């Protein structure tokens, strides 16, 4: 697990640093709206398909990382216990939420079709994921 903190930078300047590509966080206009970011987490996981009849694909966050995110964002949980994040896989960055999954004891990140298509990904692929937890 690789974690990056602001190291004394304001949250705004930290995210501006990220937009310069220091942590493979591509530049995006309007990223200032994520000034409330708490922390960035990076991990590697396998894409898996939800077992229902739905075409949802997910990656599971490492349990230790999920515990830390849950503790850090305890007051910021939204519906279903979800936590707002900005996720990056490869060159694709999107706003989404991570959701608690009691079966695996961790959070799961949905990987939407547009991301899988853009990065040429399918079920079973191993991916490197960066997640910035936000409070908005």
- Tell me what portion of residues adopts beta-strand conformation: 25-35%
Strand line-up of the largest beta sheet: 1-2-8-5-6-7-4-3
Give the helix proportion (percent range): 10-25%
Low-confidence stretches: 1-37
Question: What structural category do the secondary elements indicate?
Answer: alpha+beta
The rough form would be described as: globular
| Biggest pleated-sheet summary | 8 strands, antiparallel
Q: What's the count of strands? A: 8
Order of helices and strands: EHEEEHEEEHE
Number of helices: 3
Q: Give the integer mean of the pLDDT values.
A: 76
**What is the rounded Rg?**
14 Å
Distance between the first and last residues' Cα: 25 Å
Write structural notes for this entry:
The protein is α+β, with helices and mostly antiparallel strands. The protein has helices at 11-19, 63-72, 113-118; strands spanning 2-4, 39-46, 48-49, 57-60, 83-89, 92-101, 106-110, 126-133. The chain is globular and about 35 Å long. The chain starts with a strand and ends with a strand. The relative contact order is 0.24. Residues 1-37 have low confidence and may be disordered.
Short structural summary:
The chain is an alpha+beta fold and 136 residues long. The protein has helices at residues 11-19, 63-72, 113-118; strands spanning 2-4, 39-46, 48-49, 57-60, 83-89, 92-101, 106-110, 126-133.
């Amino acid at each position: 697990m690789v974690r990056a903190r602001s190291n004394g930078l304001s949250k705004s300047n930290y995210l501006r640093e990220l937009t310069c590509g220091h942590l493979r966080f591509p530049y995006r206009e309007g990223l200032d709206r994520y000034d409330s970011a708490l922390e960035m987490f990076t991990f590697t996981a396998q894409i898996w398909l939800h077992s229902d009849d739905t075409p949802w694909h997910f990656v599971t966050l490492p349990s230790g990382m999920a515990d830390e995110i849950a503790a850090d964002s305890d007051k910021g949980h939204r519906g279903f216990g979800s936590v707002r994040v900005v996720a990056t896989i490869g060159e694709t960055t999107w706003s989404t939420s991570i959701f608690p999954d009691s079966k695996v004891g961790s959070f799961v990140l949905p990987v939407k079709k547009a991301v899988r298509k853009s990065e040429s990904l399918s079920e079973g692929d191993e991916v490197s994921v960066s997640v910035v937890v936000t409070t908005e």
